[in-house]
Each structure stands twice: as C-alpha cells, then as structure tokens.
Amino acid sequence: MDEIRLDIKLRPIRFLFLVKPNDKKNLEKVFQINTLLWGGKYNPIVPYFKRVPKWWGSDHKTYNATKILNDYLDFFEPDFIVETEESMTKDFVFDKERVLQVDDLLSVDEHGLDDKYGLTVYDLYVDLYEKKYQFERRHKVNIVNVISENKKNQLFTSCIFGSFSKSPELCFFEEGFIDVFDPKKVELNDISLIELYQGSNLSPLDATHADIDIQYHQSSPDARLFIFDLEAPRDLIDYWNLRIIYKNIVAIPMQWIAKLADFCNEFISDNYRARPHQEEYFFRTTIMFSRSISEDKGSEIYNKYLSGNENKTILQFWYPDIRVDKSDNPMELQRSILIFEQVNRDIALTYEYEKPQIQFDTIAPDFIKKKYHHKPLWANVINIKDWGNQSRTLTCFPTNYRNPVFPKFNYHRDFLLPTTEGLTIFPESINRQYWNLHNGTEAINQWLSKYEIKATVSDAGKSVQQIIETIGGVPQLSSLANKNIVERLNDMTNKPLTRSMHAEEFKNRINTKNNKKPASRLVSQKIVQLGLELKCSKCDSWNWYEINNLNYELSCNRCLKFFNFPILDPSNSSLSRWSYRVVGAFALPDYARGGYAASLAIHFFVRKVSYSHMLNITWSSGQELTLQSGEKAEADFILWAQREKIVGLNKPTNIVFGEAKSFAKDAFKDSDIQKMKLLAETFPKSILVFATMKSFDEFSVDEVQRLRKLADWGRGYDNKNKEVRAYVMILTGLELFMGGLERLTNVWEDEGGKYAELAKKRRIHSDNLETLAYATQELYLNMPSYYEGLYNIKL
Prior knowledge:
By secondary structure, the protein is α/β, with parallel strands linked by helices. Among the domains are: 3-9 and 336-449, no CATH class; 217-316; 479-524 and 528-582, no CATH class; 591-788. Helices cover 30% and strands 25% of the residues. Strands 26-33-34-35-36-39 form a 6-stranded mixed beta sheet, with helices on both faces. Strands 19-1-22-24-23 form a 5-stranded antiparallel beta sheet, with no helix packed on it. Strand 2 (15-19), helix 1 (24-36) and strand 3 form a beta-alpha-beta unit.
C-alpha cells in the first residue's frame, strides 16, 4: 500500500501589525492586544510609512518604502495582517479576506468575548495554573504584573512585559490574571528592571508563549544588548521584532545606562566564553545601537560605560535588514519557529480515478474550552514527505502566502497558505481533512491556470512522460545517463523497418569491460525488447518480430506478402538473427524527439541535485503555454524546487523552466531565447535552464552569444521590484551524463582545467539554483562572477 508521511505542527496564528513609527496610541494598543493573544509576543510589528524616513539609515535615500514593507512581509509570512488605520494595505498584493482592523481583532458581543481571530489567553491562564503553578516548584518562578512608574515609560513596559487594556470590555483579562496567579505588582524603573532581568519571572507577555517551543535559527548563543532611546517608539518596534529573531537579546534604555552599566558589564562577562571544540574562538556580546542613536552617540555611551570590554564585545551601529536571505550562510537572519505540538503520521493513499487521496486529523490546543468554532483560532502547518512515490504525489509547492490561489486540496473555501514553513491551514477544532492530491504535471497545469495561462502537455512532453513511466520513475533514468547508450539507442531508431540491432552487437556496444549490466537493465526496463529478425523470401527485406508473434507463416512489413518461417535452417544468419529493438517512446527518432535530453535534465535535478541535498522537487514534462496576452510559449520541462533546511525555515520555492536539446551544433536559436525570456517576464526571478547532451566544445559561437545576452539581461535589476530578472543556467552532457552517486563539484574537479578551478575557487552549493546558475555562466559563457559586477543589457 502506498503511504506518505505528514509532519503536522500546531502553532498560534501569526498576525502582523502595521503601525506608523511614531503612533504611540496605536502602538500601545498593539502591545495590549498581543498581551491577550496566544503567542502574541511573537507577532511581528511593521513600521508603516510611504516615504523612507531619514532615521532609517545613513543611505536611506537608496531604500524604497514599498520594497521595505514587502521585505518585512516576506520575512515574517503573516497569516493575517492587522491595520491600525484603514487602507494601509490598499497597494499591497495580499488576500483582502486576511486583512483585519485592529479594533475588530478582539470583538465583544452580548455573550461576552468573541474569539474572532486567534485564541486569547484566558483559558490558557487556567490551564497553566492547574498544570504548573498551583504546586510548589523547586525552582520558583515569580509571577509579576509590571506597571509603569510614569506615563513616559508606559510603552517600554508594555513592550517588554506586556500590559492589559483598561477598556470595560477587556479589563477582565487583567482581573483573570490576578485571580489565577496572584502576581507580584512591580513598578518599573531602572532598579526594578535589573531585578526583573536577573530573576526568573513570568509576566503577562511571557504567559502568551508558555509551553510553546521557540526554535531560533541562530544556532550560536551569542548574546546581544540593544541600546535604544526610551522616547522613540520606533526603537521599541525594532526591538520587538529583534526578539522574534534572536534568542538572547536584552533591551537597555539609553536614559538608564548609568544605573544599568554594572548589569551590562556583568552580562558581557557572563557571556564571554570559549566555543566548544574551538577554544581559540570566543562567544562575544554584540552591542547593538538603535536607529535613533547616532554612531557618535553610541561610541560615547560605549566608551563611558562599557569600555574595557573590547575583546568581549562586537559593536553594531546598524539595524539588520529584515528580508529573506537567500545565501548559504548558516547565520543568516530568520524568524523563529513556534511549535506547541508536533506529530508525524503515515497516511495511506487511496485512489479515485487513479488520483491519490488522503484523510487525516488535525491537532488543536489541549487548553481550549470551546470545542467547535467557525473562525481561524490556531494554525496547523503541514509538510508532506513522499520517500518513494515522488512522481505520483507532489510534495513541493510555489510559496505564496499573500494570495494563495494554489494548491486547493478540497472543495471548501478554507485558507491554505503555501509558505517556507509548510502548508498552513486553520482547522475548525479537531477536524478531519480530506485532500485530493495531484501529480506534478496536473499540479503545474492547475497552478498555471490560476494565472490565466492555458497549458497542455506538448508532444515532446508526452514522449518524456512515456519514457519516465516506462522506465519506472525518474531515479531509473540513470540507465540513460550515458552518452554511448543514448547514441546507440538513437542509431537503432534510424534503421528502417526493424529499428533493431543484432543481440551480440548490441551487448558489445552497450556493455563495457568494467560494467556488464547496462544491456540487461535496458531490457528489464523495457527500453529494448528481444525479438527475431527474419528475411522475407519474397522481397529480401528484413523484418523484426516479437517472440510472441512468431509463427510458421509471417507477413512482411514492406511488401505485405506472406512468407514462411525458415524452419529447415533457423540458425542461418542470412535468414534469421536474434536482435534487440527499441520500443515505445524510445523508438522515436531524433533522440526520442528530444525526450532523452529533457528526461535527463529532470533526472539531474531530481536525482543528482535533490538526492544529494535537501532539495524538494515537483516536476512536469513539456508544456505548450498560451499566456494572458495571447502569446505562445513552450517549456520542455517545468520544475518547482524548494531548498529544505534541517534547522530553520525552508527557502522560497524556485520556478524552473527548461529548454532541452540533443546534440545539434547550433541548437539554441533566437526563437528559443525569446520564448524563455517571455516566461521570465511572466514569472520574475525564475530559473531558465538550457540543457543539452552535447559537450560545451560543440556549442557554436552564435549560440554562446545568444545565451550570454540573455544571461546579461537576467542579471539586470527590475526597476520596480529591485530584484534580479531571471537566473540563466547552462547544463551540458558533462552534467546530464553524471553517473553513480557523483556530486557535481567532484565531476567538475575530475574534469580539470577551468572546471576544477571554478569548483575549488568557489564553494558551490548545487542545491542553491541561483548560485549554480551563476557558476554555469562563469563556466560556459565566460562571464565574470555576478558579485563582481551587475549587467543591464537590452535584448
């Protein structure tokens, strides 16, 4: 029975709040709301502006306000956006059904509080008390309710420890917190802040993430002190978001630094220690200064209060870019991942009309009192793993949390968000899900149709499908990953009538001294079939017959007359001979009408790149496309490729379009270039792959010039989005005919010359398709490293 693995995680809903940087009133309201929401401490707050303010950075004029806001969204991938003023998202591409108003987030009707979106903490308080805090604890935790000593410090208090709304409709939350926990009331000032930082405390804001596993991507335990201006609300927004990224970061008001200096110096000393197994290197504390503090002012503070720690600290006078980092740096910036519960389930696949279906139960928080609802209160994040059935069930999807038109696995209007975390749904209590899954070709066709692009499998695509189905799946294409084999198979297709080769000749030309298995594999995989060639006694032409079709009297395929089987001299080689014949799609001329090249390109990504790395692939064979404009395009293969991470979030899914050629010298024509450019304009930042079975020295000069011109264009920036237009990748026979378990870098090193030089000079992660594309441009198009210069040449 076919099975797939579902990895299901339960977490709070992730709200992203839009607030103007100096809007103290609404910022306080946002802090209060997040004090009442389950997981509220980890809901991002984004500073909203239409023009980049001067305080954003010394080079603020080079920033684009729309780009900054979109970077924040892509970094945090919110389930819902909450506006503090109406129409903040009017220019955003985002599902309008998931845009909320701040005053509607917690609504109250005549029956009391109505959990409109997201769970509140009221039931959680009772659950925490019953499970933990009613008993005497060995390590006592002080439950505190921190209040501001004066109005000036109120925002800071709310940001660090949370605060309760005083509105008549919501004041019962504070009453509940006090009734359940009997907290110690603490007035915040410079002295009490030190005590709170040094003690083990549970504040109202801390309670929002009780029992949630917070997984930080930053594996290094380097600590951070964030020194900020107590009177700048924008600094508190920045700190709030940094807390979602860094595990050990402490906020230090600039106005209190004199009283907090001893605490800071002790903090720095406590966190200065040798790294495990690297005793010559030490963990050091990063001193981060907020945007409101100039470098001169920051240096003054450091020299006056924190000097003497030069070897124990790192000074940072800039705020990190909140954006999706596509680098291979393990210390790249990422948001933390919240997991309240996680289960792994093996789910049996059932089939209806040969289409796979699954059923599974979602998971819900154990502390909720309300068992049924019809509103999004929590999230399940689902990842599909298909270890042995990839060609039938897709597991990788285009990431599109903003306007998720695809996938749709059921017939309901349920939200299903494909994100770098996984497929996010908002179940109604504990409910059973019924999903209709797809194979790659069906899924990619449906996805294209959502963009009003008509897609049909091309004739060449059908050939590729037949090749892969006949051979037993993409992994089995390794049988064809040999130039000699595909050339011999193509030779057979060019023989009139028989399309065959004598049995001994076939084995001698396919097998090698060191490997006697290729011929038998081609037979077992039904690429070739054993039969008998017989000479017609009427017209002297040779015919090939399957063993099952042999008879005493046979019909000639050329003259159509009947002739007798040579029963008196069956072993006479001038009358009969055992032969292997290519069958099915493998019998098509011109290298299965280009099917070998496209199949081997798919094999390269699925088996050579994905198999060696954490790269999840969904593939489709060739498609003929009619775009919204009416223009025609074609891709010989289409892929979705997502880099998966053992620690942290996956990368956004790459869209890959491929053009595949066999051995023609001037194969990639102007029409092919324009066709791929049109696809890149329709799907910006896509990977454009030009794959051929020939070696690079067989490329024509014109061919290289065409490809380089497209690669130059692709490297150029889209002026609107400030993004690279496309990534052009070249694959030759060297890559497509990789055998065994070879890695690409090893193949290049073994090839020597410029290949080995590039492999040694640049650390190439072949699962990072963007950097792999640039590496092939250096190698085959004689282009400099992308990072040595930018190009913007019109096609």
